[in-house]
Amino acid sequence: LSCSSCFSDTGTKPPESGIFGFMINISAFLGAATMYIRYLIIEKQNESSHFMNPSCNLITLCIGFLGCIGMGIVANFQELSVPSVHDGGALVAFGSGVVYITLQSVISFKSCPQWNSHCTCYIRMAISIVACIAVIPMIACASLISITKIDWIPGEKDYTYHFVSAICEWTVAFSFIFFFLTFIRDFQGVTLRILTEMHEDF
Questions:
Q1: Which of 53, 134, 44, 125 lies closest to 94, judged by CA?
Q2: Could you report the per-residue pLDDT of 128-170, keeping only the tens digit for each?
């Protein structure tokens, strides 16, 4: 019988658990680096346009970093070994992540149309809305699951809660991925600008 799998179930048993932890740690580091670069971009743009309070940009960055710390907790404290710590880290990671992309969507609208196209703003906001909608039943259903296990069979106790939570969890996770992909064009512009300034200095 097939069963649904939540994000953490993919790396609970060895040797998958080692690979899972390693990749999640790398993802958390790269996510933090991306957030910091995004912070610097907004800070530089805001210096010339003054479209937002600088403290909002810093708060958004801190929330993003908090989500990355949550990812690290998820990676290093396995679901079956220390479920309370693992679940706490997951709550921090997903909760902070949803808040981060929502705030980034708001910032995008504030900097539009000078620094972002309307299309990009709407795409980011749509992804944020999907993540916000999915994270609520994810947390609600996960809190109703009374047992911690990996192999689920349809029809057994709490299977429905697990199934809904797993779907929502993957939805939120992919929302983060697609949202970060919208930064590609912004980062390309920064790279070209840095290379141009370096060329002028020499």
A1: 134
A2: 999 999 999 999 998 898 777 776 677 788 889 988 998 999 9
First to last CA, the chain: 65
Give residues with Cβ within 8 angstroms of 97, minimum separation 6: 64, 67, 70, 131, 172, 176
Structure tokens at 133: 């909608």
For the chain, what is the mean pLDDT? 86
The token pair that represents 3 in the structure block: 């069963």
Cα separation of 149 and 140, whole Å? 18
Give every CB contact of residue 124 below 8 A, 6+ residues apart in sequence. Answer: 101, 104, 105, 108, 179, 182
114 contacts: CB under 8 Å, gap ≥ 6: 45, 49, 51
Token digits for 98? 């949803």
Q: pLDDT: is 6 or 39 the higher one?
A: 39
Buried b or exposed e, range 27-60, using 16+ CB within 10 angstroms: bbeebbeebeebbebbeebbeeeeebeeeebeeb
